[in-house]
Specification:
The chain contains 14 helices and 23 strands. By secondary structure, the protein is of the alpha/beta class. It starts with a strand and ends with a strand. Bound molecules: iron/sulfur cluster.
């Protein structure tokens, strides 16, 4: 993966394994859970649901798997190397299990769903395999393992949204948090495993989403990111708050309701689908200052023929029309993308069309990949992965170079200006610096300043930039 920016992560990105911990729960059973997450932000949000379920059982979390009673690895299947990383990690946990045979090792998430019981055959040291819709069953599944059996539940659901489970915030900064608003995906992009591993699309009820956002704000959080594989198709139907009429809530209406919680609560969302993003959503973003002017709108390819093979259900012209609408309704809005180089049968001219759409849009940043075939997907069944690796590599390098130049150009537009940022904490590179993001999701780094602390909004005068970061000083 080529990550041009420190941004929130979407379904088309992968994060390396991160151990997730929280302070001790109220009632303990003396048992410790170690949970490590890979992949998209939805997976990280799911780990917070898993932790919540087990903390309710009296577990506490630990950041050291060697002191854990239960080790869970929440997996990603989006690319082969993501799966390989998980297998390598499992062999490390295996060594620990040989030392401590009572240790329970579980595989959760997309890889569990994709491989199902094969996982138990392939990885003998794994005790429990649980798909993304079966986390409520974890306490029972752990009991089965304790009574000497292997346990598995990979049933996908048409209803499960975990709406009533309040996620515990793991590794949080206490300032920004993710809220899942829906699960699954009904699109069948031909390169993607998600519809097979996360099931059909379901929208979570808006009351529980609003309650979660309000609770976060009351606890001092200042930014929430509403998460879904395709947030623009959020649609919930049910009784109104007084239970006397049936109402329908779409994504624009949900955005507005969350924005009204407080002007001091920033709202972000991910991911948008070009076929579904409506002008109503764009007007809602434009109407509220606290809905960030940033849209992740993955194009994947600039060629209509390749988009058709990818089953993206929009054309180059449709995508350009949506970008024009964003530029018209929300001037200055940042746009980011996911781009795949070397999809099946992609010609040199079609690759050039991807480069030219990048020129047209001028993405603020992009996550770029060379195509890797995933077993079970429509593309794997229907098309030959026929672009030689060195051609994919060269096309990817051209895409990346263009994006680096565009990212630098986009960030240079802020130099000499003052931007409002939400301070997230100390910078990764130096504890003498603070960092935070502006409305357009650009990372801003500035020297730690007396009186400024995480969670505050401050104005920063931008003096200079790299292709990924704005650098400046606080001004009043
Ligand atoms: S929209 Fe397409 S790429 Fe995104 S999760 Fe759904 S099938 Fe996968």
């Amino acid at each position: 993966m080529i990550d041009l920016q420190l941004t929130d992560k979407t379904h088309d990105e992968e994060r390396q394994g991160e151990a997730l911990v929280i302070d001790a729960p109220l009632v303990r059973n003396g048992r410790k859970l170690y949970i490590e997450s890979y992949g998209c932000q939805m997976n990280f949000a799911d780990s917070e649901i898993v932790a919540s379920i087990l903390l309710d059982q009296g577990f506490e979390t630990t950041g050291d798997y060697k002191e854990a009673d239960v080790v869970f690895i929440n997996t990603c299947s989006i690319r082969e190397n993501a799966e390989q990383r998980v297998r390598n990690r499992l062999s490390q946990f295996g060594a620990e299990k040989r030392r401590n045979p009572k240790l329970i090792v579980g595989v959760l998430g997309c890889m569990a769903e994709r491989l199902k019981s094969k996982f138990l055959e392939e990885e003998k040291l794994v005790d429990v395999v649980v798909g993304p819709d079966a986390y409520r069953e974890l306490p029972q599944l752990l009991s089965e393992v304790e009574s000497g059996h292997k346990a598995i539940n990979v049933l996908l659901s048409r209803e499960e949204t975990y709406a009533d489970i309040s996620p515990v915030r793991l590794n949080g900064n206490g300032i920004t948090a993710f809220i899942s608003i829906m699960r699954g995906c009904d699109n069948m992009c031909s390169f993607c495993v998600v519809p097979f591993t996360r099931g059909r699309e379901r929208s979570r009820d808006p009351y529980s989403i609003l309650a979660e956002a309000q609770d976060l704000f009351d606890r001092g959080y200042k930014e929430v990111t509403l998460l879904g594989q395709n947030v623009d198709s959020y649609k919930w139907k049910g009784a109104d708050a007084n239970e006397d009429a049936e109402i329908e809530v779409n994504f624009a209406q949900l955005l507005e309701k969350v924005a009204l919680i407080s002007p001091d609560l920033r709202i972000r969302f991910s991911t948008s689908h070009p076929k579904d993003i409506t002008d109503e959503v764009l007007h809602t973003i434009a109407k509220y200052d606290n809905i960030c002017n940033y849209i992740h709108l993955p194009v994947q390819s600039g060629s209509t023929r390749v988009l058709e093979l990818m089953n993206r259900t929009y054309t180059r012209e449709w995508y350009i029309n949506r970008v024009d609408a964003i530029r018209r309704i929300i001037p200055g809005c940042a746009i980011s993308s996911d781009i795949i180089a070397g999809f099946c049968t992609e010609t040199e001219e079609e690759h050039q069309e991807t480069l030219s759409i990048m020129d047209y849009v001028g993405y603020d940043f992009a996550f770029t990949f060379s195509y890797s075939e995933r077993p079970g997907t429509l593309a794997a069944r229907k098309y030959a992965d026929d672009i030689p690796e060195e051609v994919k590599k060269r096309r990817l390098a051209e895409i990346l170079l263009k994006q680096q130049q565009t990212s630098l150009f986009r960030l240079q537009q802020f130099v000499g200006k003052t931007v409002r940022i939400l301070v997230e904490g100390t910078s990764k590179k130096s504890d003498k610096d603070f960092c935070g993001r502006n409305d357009q999701n650009a990372m801003v780094v500035f020297p730690a300043t007396e009186g400024v602390k995480a969670g505050q909004y401050v104005n920063v005068h931008v003096d200079r930039c790299t292709s990924a970061t704005l650098l400046g000083t606080v001004v009043n």
